[in-house]
Amino acid sequence: MIEQFLAQDLSAVEEAIRKAAAVEIMPRFRQLAEHEVDQKSGPHDLVTVADRKAEEHLTASLTHLLPGSAVVGEEAVHADPTVYGALRADAPVWIVDPVDGTRQFVGGDPAFCTLVALAHRGEILASWTFAPALEELATAVRGQGAYVNGERIRSGSPRPGADLRVAMAHPLYTSDEDKVRLARLDVPGVVARPCGSAGLEYLRVARGEMDGLAFTWPSAWDHAAGLLLVAEAGGAQSTVAGVPFRIDRDNELPFAVGRDEATAVRIRELLRGA
Question: What start and end residues bound the annotated signal peptide (predicted)?
């Protein structure tokens, strides 16, 4: 079933994502009323009516396109954490972050995106990163390369001798232990900054605009689409345990992403304190 679906023209998935953004997200961009923004775990963990409505829209449209599939969406998991278990089940699963970068969305910053990935038994098979306010769509299918608005992208390698540009987990969302590990990136030859929308940071690495990423949280909706995009552009990733990050298991965190293998290894070893 999943192989046949991937062999088809996937433009219907793109259309579903664009429609969800056009109907549920963009009409609310810079138009949110106070009552349409809520807090989840704290003042920096925001959710809006756009997040909820777009996820509902995508859940209906994506499962219609692939009957028998499940959806693991950020807002559904917040309401019922057992939904996350679908990542370890046998059915194909859509992984959805309806508005990645909600803080930016609420603030009127166009640097947010909708993330969708299709996975089966822990393997990420296809991904879509749509930044509607920036008019950019990045796509990847396993083994077929990475694209932005239909143009092939490749991550390449950092310029020899140049400082590594690394986006790392934002301090607003990290524990004291995380902060200790991330502080290990404060070394000569590395220029680190807090990340914004995770999906757009992955896109920057896939394009070679950033050299690497360091993340401390495992949420599949933040990472699945970007991990495939970077891999198909030529990049690499690894947890501090020296094994690839996977969406269907517990991972030793943090994990590193690089625009090439050597960069991913360097970031990983710094995070380990090696």
Answer: none
